[in-house]
Amino acid sequence: MNIRPFAVAGWLGGVLGLAVCVIPLVSCVVLTGQHNVLTTAEKEQGWRLLFNGQSTAGWRGFQKEAFPDHGWLVEEGCLKCTGQKGGDLVTTEKFNDFELTWEWRLSPHGNSGVKYFIDEKRADAKGKVYGGAIGHEYQMIDDGGYTEPLHTKQKTGAWYEVIAPKNAKPKPIGEFNRSRLIVRGKHVEHWLNGDRVVSYEADSTEAVAGIASSKFKNVPGYIDKIATPILLQDHNTAVWFRNIKLRVLPAP
Asked: Tens digits of per-residue pLDDT, 175-232?
């Protein structure tokens, strides 16, 4: 709360002349820097926090029963991947139709992503369960400083390897970006810093063609929209997540 004086001048009747009153001005300052909280409006709209800034409750390792014992920690209100091969994180709950928002920042040369349509028992054509998480991915990467050249379908905001983002404007490395993912029926949207950068139907001609030209072309069921946990990727680089919020949407 800031308190500062200001002068109010007024005529107090013709014979009293000009009086100057010093009155303290009390300004209600909107608190900034608050994260991992819900506003009243968000609560009314059905939003919930997937991370409260203090606890790892609600998260576990991919294909694990518990939270990783290394590679992830809570730091200054962020869920931080330290880049020490702790493995991917998934929510303990699954979601069908939803809107997800989150803020994130990368270290230089960083690489991460948020994956959805994840099946932890997904298997190849021979029935062998994949050891890594395979699903649709909202790509998050150091576009200009990654250690390898990137094509457009590998840049920030893309449906990784399948559909390139349009007019994506990520913040400079070290600053927080705001992302949004909408899944309703087979319709999916990726948003970055207030702009929609990807929009597709899971079984559209564009999606089919993109998958056919990607490394996922032989993954059984990869195209399918399924109930899914939310996955935060550990790609062996440091990344920070905060303000992870989700609301369930009605089926279309």
From this structure: 999 999 999 999 999 999 999 999 999 999 999 999 999 999 999 999 999 999 999 9
Q: For the chain, how many structural domains are there in total? A: 1
Q: Taking the CA atoms of the chain, what radius of gyration do you get in angstroms?
A: 24
State the pTM of this model: 0.86
Contact 48, 38 (CB under 8 A): yes
Q: What is the mean pLDDT of the chain?
A: 89
3-state secondary structure 104-128: EEECCCCEEEEEECCCCCCECCCCC
What pLDDT, on the 0 to 100 scale, is given for residue 21? Answer: 36
Domain range for 204 is: 35-248
Burial track 80-95 (b if 16+ CB lie within 10 A, e otherwise):
bbbbeebbbbbbeeeb
- The CATH code of the domain that includes 82 is 2.60.120.560
Within a domain: 11: no
Q: How far apart are CA 111 and CA 147, in angstroms?
A: 10
The whole-number pLDDT of residue 2 equals 43
Question: Cα–Cα distance between 213 and 92 in angstroms, integer?
Answer: 32
